[in-house]
Amino acid sequence: MSKKALQVAAVRGTRDLWPSELSKQLHVTKALASVASRYGFGPVQTPTIESTDLFHRSLGDGSDIVMKEMYTFQDNSQNSLTLRPEGTAGVIRSLISSGLQYNGPHKVFYQGSMFRYERPQRGRYREFQQFGVEHIGSAGPSTDVDVISLARDCLQEIDLLDRVSLEINTLGCHESRLRYRKVLEEFLEKYRADLSIDSQQRLDRGSVLRVLDSKCDNDQRILESAPRLQQHLSDAARQRFDDVQGGLAALGIASNLNDGLVRGLDYYSHTVFEFVELKPETGAKGIAVLAGGCYDDLVALLGGPATPCVGWAAGIERLCLLSTQQPPSPTMIAVVPIAAGDSATVTAVRHHALRVAKALRDKGHTVHVCDGSSMKKQMKMADTFQCSFAVLLGEDELHNDTATVKHLHERQQHVVPLPELAAYFKPSALP
């Protein structure tokens, strides 16, 4: 078999991540989890595969995800399974199947792979990492504000706050949406022939509100004169949204009302929001980096009791794309056995190097053992690992219970007693 035949590329829309990139993703995820923990949220984990029916029921048969983007297959028992396209439905399914829906409230966060068959582009992949939070079982504007505040603090933690803006809207209560859907549908039917094919299909499926989210310029021109949901809110829904905006203002969180923001999933209600990238060079808005809202009907839709919920999710790849913050890099130390002489001496020096490396690691240092056939190759290995120091260990060091520490960036070296070696690499002890 030829070498060419053995080459298998990664699936389109997926990526291989090696330490330089993956370390940033892990750093961002850890930062978000740390902030969520300070808000009292705890980790939860659900399966990557779920019953396909879960997403048909939760996301809606007419949603773009269900119609175009899910990775669905049948297992050997002819069960229809789907790689999860988002995390909320799985968390709520787990809540109900575990019998936890009656002893809330629950505050959880999750992270993991999600899958959507979309056209790969900047910040968008077919397998992507998502971090999300769910506040389950507490109702009211204060909970909405608290969850948005958590999102803001997460973005601040990774130095992204000055690169995004908060867009906010309300979808109102169920009755408000029913009234508005009827009025909007009557308006759009007048312009059906001028709407994009996607928007016409959304009208046919009954996904009227999704037309507001159209990316077609001509659709948006038509929508400029469309009736507004704000005009059809119930008094209670309007008061709730006023309270949310007032709570955000009290925390000093700036927001922009965007009455075209509807989110793409059927389960949303009341407050919805997105943190959207700002492009300083043009002043235009870019990709949404974090988005969410209330979903008070989802638990009941999946077989549980009526339960208020609010949450959000963020794509880790998009956060890493925009954030210039880098994970802290540990000081790399190379332990270099200088093996010469008879085989017994060579073996003794190499074993000694392994013991020294372990002792340094036990004290929390990051250590590479750079063994090889020549000093030149060993030092090249230390450079490849981006080591700042090389601990040279030969026969003399073995007998004298010392180590020769070479500063690889400063062209100097020092002989250090072996018992003092671990402390030598603390910043305060460096000469």
TrEMBL record:
Molecular function (Gene Ontology), one example? histidine-tRNA ligase activity
GO BP annotations, alphabetical order? histidyl-tRNA aminoacylation
Q: InterPro entries annotated for this entry? A: aa-tRNA-synth_II (IPR006195), aa-tRNA-synth_II/BPL/LPL (IPR045864), Anticodon-bd (IPR004154), Anticodon-bd_dom_sf (IPR036621), His-tRNA-ligase (IPR015807), HisRS-like_core (IPR041715), HisRS/HisZ (IPR004516)
Positions of L-histidine binding? 86-88, 116, 130, 134, 263, 267-268
Source domain of life is Eukaryota
The Aminoacyl-transfer RNA synthetases class-II family profile domain is annotated at 1-337
Q: Identify the enzyme class.
A: ligase
The EC number(s) attached to this protein equal 6.1.1.21
Tell me a GO cellular component.
cytoplasm
A single Pfam family, by name? HGTP_anticodon
Indicate whether Ligase appears among the record's keywords.
yes
Catalytic activity reported: tRNA(His) + L-histidine + ATP = L-histidyl-tRNA(His) + AMP + diphosphate + H(+)
Which UniProt keywords are listed? Ligase, Nucleotide-binding
Cited NCBIfam families: hisS (TIGR00442)
Recorded hits in PANTHER family, A to Z, give:
HISTIDINE--TRNA LIGASE, MITOCHONDRIAL-RELATED, HISTIDYL-TRNA SYNTHETASE
Q: Name the family the entry cites.
A: Belongs to the class-II aminoacyl-tRNA synthetase family.
Please report the name of this protein according to its UniProt entry.
histidine--tRNA ligase
- What organism, scientifically named, is this protein from? Achlya hypogyna (Oomycete)
Traced from the root, the source organism's taxonomic lineage reads: Eukaryota, Sar, Stramenopiles, Oomycota, Saprolegniomycetes
